[in-house]
Amino acid sequence: MKAIVLAAGKGTRLQTEGIPLPKVMRSACGRPLLSYVLQELDFLSPGEIAVVVGYRKENVIPAFPGYRFAEQKEQLGTGHAVLSASGLFAGYQGPVLVCCGDMPLMKKSTYQALIRTHLEEGNLCTVLTGRAEHPLPYGRVIRDGEGRFLAIREEKDCNAEEREIRELNSGVYVFDAETLFSALPRLKNSNAQGEYYLTDVPSLILSEGGRVGICEACGEEEMLGVNTPDQLREVEEQIRRRKA
């Protein structure tokens, strides 16, 4: 088992506070956001984890010795970010977990439930999902009439009916590594953001006859990412509650 942690973002909306750090190095309760994510991945050794860096990488790399790093030189979307790490996985044929470095509330047990589902079902891709009662600007998970995975639709690309779907994509996946890195160069950026979405990979796998599964094991608070000062404060409050 190996993992890729996406940690290249600038965090433009957090820069309004005048702190020129990359997003994953912003502090929550005295620790960088990324440190919480890596702590929950401690069932893997640092050498099995690739961290994709970009903006001010010099602030990230020295803070986490022992991990492997790949650079995303341009911000062209999550699919492009994962592709930036492909050179670190040459010859690897096993499963790879892909997660986000700005989601410090995701629990180890949730990552492990996703991995277990992926292995038990023999999937080429397994998507971690959760249901939210409060509006979150995340991709909606589209299922067929029998409850099987069909697609992930990013919120900006959703129609009115799709926006009412409460099952959300957490942004965390397990892929078969060879299948993932074969699919990434074939992504297209014909969407509202003009980006290469990692969320398009499961649908591409499905269209080619591959098995895609869903693990609905993510709590609503675990899906919280940090893009704004308000979200950083909300995450800090959740961390304090857990400690209490």
UniProtKB/TrEMBL annotation:
State the UniProt keywords alphabetically: Acyltransferase, Nucleotidyltransferase, Transferase
All copies of the MobA-like NTP transferase domain together span: 3-142
MF-aspect GO terms = glucosamine-1-phosphate N-acetyltransferase activity; UDP-N-acetylglucosamine diphosphorylase activity
Q: Name the domain of life.
A: Bacteria
Q: Which reaction does it catalyse?
A: N-acetyl-alpha-D-glucosamine 1-phosphate + UTP + H(+) = UDP-N-acetyl-alpha-D-glucosamine + diphosphate; alpha-D-glucosamine 1-phosphate + acetyl-CoA = N-acetyl-alpha-D-glucosamine 1-phosphate + CoA + H(+)
- Which InterPro entries does this one have? GlmU-like, MobA-like_NTP_Trfase, Nucleotide-diphossugar_trans
Q: What's one Pfam family the UniProt record gives for this protein?
A: NTP_transf_3
Where exactly are the transmembrane stretches of this chain? none
Q: Does the keyword Nucleotidyltransferase apply?
A: yes
Q: Establish whether keyword Signal is in the entry.
A: no
Homology family: In the N-terminal section; belongs to the N-acetylglucosamine-1-phosphate uridyltransferase family. In the C-terminal section; belongs to the transferase hexapeptide repeat family.
- Enumerate the PANTHER family for this protein: BIFUNCTIONAL PROTEIN GLMU (PTHR43584:SF3), NUCLEOTIDYL TRANSFERASE (PTHR43584)
What does the UniProt function comment say about this protein? Catalyzes the last two sequential reactions in the de novo biosynthetic pathway for UDP-N-acetylglucosamine (UDP-GlcNAc). The C-terminal domain catalyzes the transfer of acetyl group from acetyl coenzyme A to glucosamine-1-phosphate (GlcN-1-P) to produce N-acetylglucosamine-1-phosphate (GlcNAc-1-P), which is converted into UDP-GlcNAc by the transfer of uridine 5-monophosphate (from uridine 5-triphosphate), a reaction catalyzed by the N-terminal domain.
What is the protein's name according to its record? Bifunctional UDP-N-acetylglucosamine pyrophosphorylase / Glucosamine-1-phosphate N-acetyltransferase
Organism the protein comes from: Papillibacter cinnamivorans DSM 12816
Lineage, please? Bacteria, Bacillati, Bacillota, Clostridia, Eubacteriales
